[in-house]
Design brief:
The complex is a heterodimer of chains A (337) and B (351).
Chain A lengths: L1 H4 L1 E7 L4 E6 L4 E5 L2 E4 L2 H7 L4 E2 H6 L4 E4 L14 H16 L6 E8 L1 H6 L1 H9 L4 E6 H8 L4 E8 L4 E7 L8 E4 L3 H15 L7 H11 L10 E6 L2 E6 L1 H9 L2 H13 L3 H8 L2 E4 L8 H9 L7 E3 L6 H12 L2 H6 L1
Parallel strand pairs in A: 1-7, 7-8, 9-14, 14-15
Antiparallel strand pairs in A: 1-2, 2-3, 4-5, 4-6, 9-10, 10-11, 12-13
Chain B lengths: L1 H27 L15 H12 L1 H6 L9 H12 L20 H5 L6 H4 L6 E6 L16 H19 L3 E4 L9 H10 L4 E8 L8 E7 L5 H11 L6 H10 L3 H25 L4 E8 L2 H5 L4 E8 L3 H7 L2 H20 L5 H4 L1
Parallel strand pairs in B: 1-2, 1-3, 3-6, 4-5
Antiparallel strand pairs in B: 4-6
Classes of the chains: A alpha/beta (337), B alpha/beta (351).
């Protein structure tokens, strides 16, 4: 144990939209997964920093080259600056955790399932520089670990770029136990943008505004109230009813999720299928969509009794799980890594 | 007593998980797995059979998609399908489609789950075929750049990239400037049990100063220019057009019929959308069928990508830079990875 006290364990959730860190020293921080570099000398003077993160990137988006490295769940190695951006995000998160100088850092990093499959080496390269020992796991697994859902459970992590499904059955989930869909938060944004353009062709709005409306008003099923927002028309702010469009866009991801859920359960050992159906957990930003838990539970009802719940803290569920894994993993395993 | 039993069971599960995490990460570091690990409770083969039965083989073979599309009509339909009870386990597959000749509908309905994913087929070997070589220079640009050299260079770069990002073995049909008949290229694919075959070529449009990208999979040509291109890329080797017609009519391989258009679409998407960032005037000629010998005889998903256009003077100049050739290799890689992921396009190819 004395050896463990000299270490700082950190859990990092490297998400498509938001990344978070939970550290053994009690720090919990998050940033939006955007990185921006000033476009030129003038831009560098304007922004005053060599590299920007999160909301600052959006604020100065006209002056910086914006990179969202894990958009759609994978790092685009060699095509743009994705790998470099991942490195910057990790460095920044670790700085936010405030480690004591000279203290060794052991990190568990959760990444989207597809990224774990495709970008294994790139992730290691990006993270290894800042930590002394490193473990990479899939995001839904780290969420499951944080909740203690080690057996007969299904985690549906609805992120921005991807929805990751992961069945837990008492061992580390393999590729067969995980599935990734592109129907996720960004997909809803695209749908909402296009529905609104269709209905209000003269109104002017951008993807960022659409994303904010989604985060504020998203729902499936029956609306609690009409959703009305101000959108400029020929420069003049006009109140628009976007209730039907928000509903349609949010519900557009559901068929794929229901289909994948039923397929994943169906391919599992029949003896355990009922148990998994009663132990489904929604995580990620998508779990905050109003009514989604009830919808999925209803959709699965005809297959047998089902219970769907949502994680209480979607922003930190992944990094908390990664930290828990880091702290509980035997010291001799860390030595090998 | 029950609490103790439960705690012991949880401790055992955690031990198994820690071991799994360690093995997976050691593997990343280049170490082999210390021991074989059983994933899941159900035998893999049984799971594949059950999964196939659940999906309904008919769905796959007719190409009907269960995935929601971008349009509300499709979403509504998909919701109904998902909400209905799964088909009876181990239901007999529907009768195979009528054999001879190519049913054009088979090419249209390629929106469902790729067979490679549906049946959990691994892609272990990817064969890259740099077009032409040796005495066969292929097209020659106005400044004298031979197609064979550019194709070979891009192929080398693509190989390096795929090796870094996939577990598949990546091979080249030729790794130097040698003459290699088309039948030998196919023989290499067979001998190495290639799972994917990607042939790299460059287009040449003599009378128009345009830059185009197009990707072919095997089938009867749908237009005269594709026939002409096939004739040129076949370089007079292999059977004549009349024999090709017979071969086309004998084509029965389900895998190729469904998978090659998917692979072609993923590569074309990535090539065009990414290339357009550097050349706004580039034209998307899409995916097409063409009677190419190398595609016909490869019994796996096989495409021929015309990745650029040598007759365009500016493009020829750009092809002279390693950066541009590396870009093209990266776009090809993205297309292949998109296909391998699940037939969905990633952000990169949507850009």
């Amino acid at each position: 144990m004395s050896q463990k006290n000299d270490l700082l364990f950190v859990g990092i959730d490297l998400g498509t939209s938001r990344s978070s860190i939970s550290a053994g020293n009690g720090q919990r921080q998050w940033i939006e997964s955007y990185v921006g570099w000033p476009k030129d000398f003038v831009a560098a003077q304007v922004v005053g920093k060599p590299v920007l993160f999160g909301s600052e990137v959006l604020e100065y988006r006209l002056s910086v080259d914006v990179c969202r490295p894990l958009q759609h769940g994978i790092i685009k190695e060699g095509i743009d600056r994705s790998e470099e951006a991942v490195k910057e995000i990790i460095r920044h998160l670790i700085e936010l955790a405030g480690p004591d100088e000279g203290r060794e850092i052991h990190a568990v990093v959760g990444v989207p399932s597809d990224s774990l499959k495709i970008n294994k080496l790139a992730i290691r390269r990006a993270v290894a520089e800042f930590v002394d020992s490193l473990v990479v796991v899939s995001e839904p697994f780290s969420v499951a670990y944080s909740l203690g859902l080690l057996n007969n459970a299904l985690v549906i992590d609805i992120g921005a770029g991807t929805t990751d499904l992961c069945i837990m059955h008492g061992t580390l989930p393999g590729e067969d136990d995980q599935r990734t869909l592109l129907q996720a938060g960004d997909y809803i944004d695209d749908q909402l943008f296009s529905h609104l353009q269709e209905r209000y062709p003269r109104s002017t709005f951008n993807k960022n505004m659409v994303r904010q409306w989604k985060e504020q008003f998203s729902f499936v099923g029956d609306p609690a109230a009409e959703i009305k927002v101000m959108i400029p028309v020929d420069g003049k702010p006009v109140l628009h009813d976007i209730t039907a469009e928000v509903k349609r866009a949010c519900e557009s991801i559901l068929p794929a999720i229901v289909e994948a859920t039923t397929q994943m359960i169906a391919r599992f050992d029949p003896e355990f299928q009922a148990k998994i159906r009663r132990n489904i957990v929604l995580a990620g930003g998508g779990s905050l969509i109003s009514g989604i838990r009830e919808y999925l539970q209803g959709a699965l009802k005809e297959y047998g009794p089902s219970a769907v719940s949502c994680v209480s803290d979607p922003l930190f569920a992944g990094s908390d799980g990664a930290l828990k894994l880091a702290q509980e993993m035997p010291a001799q395993y860390w030595e090998k890594l | 007593m029950i609490g103790l039993f439960s705690r012991n069971r949880e401790r055992r599960m955690k031990q198994a998980i820690f071991r799994g995490v360690l093995e997976e990460n050691l593997e990343l570091l280049g170490h082999t797995r210390p021991s074989g690990r059983v994933r899941g409770r159900f035998p893999r083969t049984a799971r594949v059979v059950l999964f196939a039965a659940t999906l309904g083989l008919g769905v796959l073979f007719t190409g009907t998609s269960l995935s929601p599309g971008l349009f509300p009509e499709q979403q509504t339909q998909a919701r109904f399908i998902a909400a209905s009870p799964p088909p009876a386990a181990l239901a007999p597959p529907p009768a195979a489609p009528p054999a001879p000749g190519l049913d054009p509908d088979l090419f249209k309905g390629a929106r469902g789950l790729p067979l490679s994913r549906a049946f959990d087929l691994g892609v272990k070997t990817i064969l890259i075929d740099p077009g032409h070589g040796g005495v066969d220079t292929g097209a020659i640009g106005r400044s004298g750049t031979p197609e064979k050299e550019i194709a070979l260079d891009i192929a080398h770069r693509l190989k390096r990239r795929l090796q870094a990002r996939t577990a598949a073995e990546v091979l080249l049909t030729r790794d130097a400037d040698v003459t290699l008949p088309l039948v030998e290229r196919v023989a290499i694919a067979h001998a190495n049990r290639a799972d994917l075959f990607v042939s790299i070529h460059l287009n040449f449009v003599p009378n128009k100063p345009i830059n185009i990208i197009e990707t072919f999979y095997f089938g009867p040509a749908t237009d005269a220019s594709s026939s002409e291109l096939a004739r040129r890329e076949n370089s007079g080797q292999g059977p004549g057009m009349s024999e090709l017609r017979e071969i086309i009519e004998r084509l029965e391989t389900q895998m190729r019929r469904e998978e090659s258009p998917r692979l072609a679409a993923a590569i074309q998407n990535s090539l065009y959308r990414n290339s357009r960032r550097g050349d706004k005037a580039i034209l998307d000629y899409g995916t097409k069928r063409g009677p190419f010998v190398v595609l016909n005889q490869a019994e796996v998903p096989a495409v021929l990508a015309e990745v650029s256009c040598l007759s365009n003077r500016q493009e020829e100049e750009r092809l002279g830079t390693p950066e541009h050739r590396e870009e093209i290799a990266a776009y090809l890689e993205t297309g292949i990875l998109d296909y391998l992921r699940n037939g969905e396009t990633t952000h990169e190819s949507k850009k």
